[in-house]
């Protein structure tokens, strides 16, 4: 898979994708990630990329010129162009799974008040938000989306099982609490059941605790009532 990130701040997008699992996936050739500076496609003495809002209003908007030039250069016939914006569809594990089947993604990062709407109408296949809050910079959101997608690619995680059992594999349940050594930490004990060797009972316990946690932290996942 190839992922192009188009942003005014390529370093912000790349920093979290340059360590640990993401770094290894890139080095192993599982994914090729390239972050581009939108300013490279800007023209004129000042290489301007933004301007005031038509019709007035606070803030600045990314102009269509540099974005059209960049995407026309970067896109391939199979490329899917995604705009990172708080106005987008909310990113979920199911979307990460769908996007992990693609071969080429171009993540366009908004800045300031966003991008000229002609970009969205003409170039963008999908608008994505990583949640109901506003970041200073879509490059942060692009890194989040890239991370969630790349870890799903075959071979990206050492242990293929590790993304089977986790939260959102069952999209309606969070994970059960987990423990490691020592068995007794400052008088706080690992639940006996986990050392019982009784796999059926352990699975049942996990399911119960997962339910309890979901009810407490994410009742919305359990539906109304
Ligand atoms: N840019 C600013 N805020 C964002 C968000 N919540 N999701 C995606 N892109 C953004």
TrEMBL record:
Keywords: Cytoplasm, Methyltransferase, S-adenosyl-L-methionine, Transferase, tRNA processing
Key word Acyltransferase present: no
Gene3D superfamilies: 3.40.1280.10, tRNA(m1g37)methyltransferase, domain 2
Coiled coil, from the record: none
Main location group: cytoplasm
One Pfam family in the UniProt entry: tRNA_m1G_MT
One GO BP annotation of this record: tRNA N1-guanine methylation
tRNA methyltransferase TRMD/TRM10-type domain ranges (all copies): 1-222
Chain positions recorded as S-adenosyl-L-methionine binding sites: 110, 130-135
GO cellular component: cytosol
Gene Ontology terms, MF aspect: tRNA (guanine(37)-N1)-methyltransferase activity
Catalytic activity: guanosine(37) in tRNA + S-adenosyl-L-methionine = N(1)-methylguanosine(37) in tRNA + S-adenosyl-L-homocysteine + H(+)
Purpose of the protein: Specifically methylates guanosine-37 in various tRNAs.
Family to which this protein belongs: Belongs to the RNA methyltransferase TrmD family.
Name of protein: tRNA (guanine-N(1)-)-methyltransferase
Provenance organism: Luteolibacter ambystomatis
């Amino acid at each position: 898979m190839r992922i192009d990130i188009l942003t005014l701040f390529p370093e912000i997008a790349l920093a979290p994708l340059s360590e640990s699992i993401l770094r290894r996936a890139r080095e192993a050739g599982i994914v090729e990630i390239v972050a581009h500076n939108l300013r490279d496609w800007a023209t004129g003495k000042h290489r301007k990329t933004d301007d005031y809002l038509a019709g007035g209003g606070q803030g600045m908007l990314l102009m269509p010129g540099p974005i059209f030039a960049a995407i026309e250069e970067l896109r391939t016939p199979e490329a899917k162009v995604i705009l990172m914006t708080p106005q987008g569809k909310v990113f979920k594990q199911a979307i990460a799974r769908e996007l992990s089947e693609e071969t080429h993604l171009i993540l366009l990062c908004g800045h300031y008040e966003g991008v000229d709407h002609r970009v969205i109408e003409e170039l963008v296949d999908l608008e994505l938000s990583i949640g109901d809050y506003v970041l200073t910079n879509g490059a942060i959101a692009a890194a989040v989306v890239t991370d969630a997608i790349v870890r799903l690619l075959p071979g990206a995680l050492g242990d293929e099982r590790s993304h089977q059992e986790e939260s959102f594999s069952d999209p309606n349940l969070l994970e059960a609490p987990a423990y490691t050594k020592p068995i007794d930490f400052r008088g706080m004990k690992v639940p006996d059941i986990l050392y019982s060797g009784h796999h059926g009972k352990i699975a049942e316990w996990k399911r119960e605790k997962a339910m309890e946690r979901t009810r407490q932290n994410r009742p919305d996942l359990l539906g109304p009532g």
